[in-house]
């Protein structure tokens, strides 16, 4: 019996969805995965600066309609590459939501050539124009239930609600 393997775009997007579960933002949970040559080189989720309080603990710090406490998932992933000296030129990024204008500019400036996103979210027309202008591309990924509906995770999830919380 030959099993059909999950396509790469869905595999990497699923990683971003998983990362979004670590988000500390109460307004929107976002995850991002940076990939080069079909290998994950970084991941990020939206949340506070390391060492600062989290929105889930102290509420959002909103100025002009935006939470200024939160670093976006895309920025966290790119900053992880910068911190560890990992080049992003020619890479791709998988994001659970369409990137905001500032993140789009940062993604393009980092040399990332393809943006994959799962959900539309305030898709900015200027961001779309910039992507086209610099020769990058964008595409929306659809996750197929057939790859996720039959996950066999075994007994380790039978008592998932009883598992102690560790390593926040």
From TrEMBL:
Family: Belongs to the cytidine and deoxycytidylate deaminase family.
Single Gene Ontology BP annotation: pyrimidine nucleotide metabolic process
Active site: 74 (proton donor)
Secretion signal, residue range per the UniProt entry: none
Co-factor(s): Zn(2+)
Lineage, broadest ranks: Bacteria, Bacillati, Bacillota, Bacilli, Lactobacillales
One of the record's GO molecular function terms: zinc ion binding
CMP/dCMP-type deaminase domain mapped to chain residues: 7-139
One CC-aspect GO term: cytoplasm
Keyword line: Hydrolase, Metal-binding, Zinc
Keyword Nucleotide-binding tagged: no
InterPro entries xref list: APOBEC/CMP_deaminase_Zn-bd (IPR016192), CMP_dCMP_dom (IPR002125), Competence_ComEB (IPR013404), Cytidine_deaminase-like (IPR016193), dCMP_deaminase (IPR016473), dCMP_deaminase-rel (IPR015517), Deoxycytidylate_deaminase_dom (IPR035105)
Keyword Acetylation: no
Name of the featured protein: ComE operon protein 2
Annotated Zn(2+) binding sites: 72, 100, 103
